[in-house]
Amino acid sequence: MRSxxxxxxxxxxxxxxxxxxxxxxxxxxxxxxxxxxxxxNRLARLFRHAVLTQDWHPAGHLSFASAQPGKRxxxxxALPYGEQTLWPDHCVQGxxxxxxxxxxSVLCSELILRKGFRRDVDSxxxxxxxDRKTSTGLRGxxxxxxxxxxxxxxxxxxxxxxxxxxxxxxxxxxTYVVVDACRAVDPRAGLEAAKxxxxxxxxxxxxxxxxxx
Length: 213
Description:
With 213 residues, the protein is an alpha/beta fold. 21% of the residues lie in helices and 24% in strands.
């Protein structure tokens, strides 16, 4: 962990999928998912720029276990682009569960990026869909805007935050994950796997207390 990282003008806060369905009571509830909200709100006051991502699935999305006869949530299936975990129906377009957590306040947000809207491919990362070929366009947007450092927060640490952060590093951004502003689907194994993967990808894990204006 590092200490005393000053937030500067070209830095970006990437807020990943802080939506009702991922918070307690939601269809794909992450334990203590709503605990990230006050931490993210505090961090947002340090930044001048932010992007929010929003899971935005059509009904019957192929990643839903309900769309795969005989399958249950958290089982896996083989698809042309690789292994796909099946999830409970969540973040369906236009549903209440797809909305951002009511307490989230990121006034510096300049873009809401919706992902997972293609019925036949899932999308964990803010940069690439799960086929690892289809771009969301975020890389070009951030490069065009001149951002150099990216600080990722949100849900879930071991899935969408992880894929987003690693793709950001691969795209050439200096990338940090603010660990206390995230929660994992699997708080133990998922967190440990993310740590190992971040180390290989060149992603730095920090605590929110280490960031300063």
